[in-house]
Amino acid sequence: MSPDDPLLALLVCPLDKGPLTLLPDGDALVNPRLRLRYPIIDGIPQLLPSSGARLPAAAPAPSEGA
Q1: What is the per-residue pLDDT for 57?
Q2: How far apart are CA 56 and CA 14, in angstroms?
Q3: Which residue has the higher pLDDT, 63 or 22?
Q4: Half-sphere exposure of 18 (CA within 13 A, CB side)
């Protein structure tokens, strides 16, 4: 998935329905509000609530504007 993919504007977190941020390496979407990371496998975002993994507490959450 690329940063200019129009699908990104439509994807939301399954838990709080807020926007998601694509990580720079393009392998995951992040909800910075809940500090959850959703993987992208074979170009398909895994957006089930059970797919979300907590970001480490030491790692800063990506900003929403990124």
Answers
A1: 81
A2: 20
A3: 22
A4: 10
